[in-house]
User: What shape does this take?
Amino acid sequence: MANMKIDFVSDVSCPWCAVGLKSLEAALARVGSAVDAEVHFQPFELNPQMAPEGEDVAEHLARKYGPSLDMARSQEALAARGDAVGFHFDFRKRSRIYNTFDAHRLLHWADGEGKQLALKNALFNAYFTQGQDPSNHELLVSVAKSVGLEEKRAREILASDEFAREVRDRENFYTNAGIHSVPAVIINDRHLIQGGQPPEVFEQALRQLAAEG
Assistant: This one.
């Protein structure tokens, strides 16, 4: 069995990150006992300057990528890729994009509690499937509680600036390392897989690295 450390650099508001995570999970299931993977989610903010009230998705994307962006076609492609790996996007419910810094603070805490993967998946579902606001503290507390994290502790973290420095430090570390788009999956601190790849890409990489020892 090959031991692997996998750092999954991503943002809660990144749709391709949701696809990439499901693909990675599928690949890990396929390789089974050949790989013992320790997955850690590292913070990346697509919109670190996003205002607390968020921004309309269509307006945000038009400003970011230009008015020629075919949002309907892009959403159709994402929905198809999501369906292929078992993740449902409901773009009718997702009308705004939000600041995700507090979600990353909770994810940092959840890593030490052994609940980071569950929280990450629950946050993706809350935003992309349910259309909820991942910057809203009540929503964040509810999602944390739903995966077995302590409600009181979640509230304490969100009411303070706890883990803010740690999250900023990790964001800066990966930005300075050349990560400027996500998802970015880094295996054993050396091997980078960029983008929301299909399961086969992750599986091939995992098997090859396992064989190399």
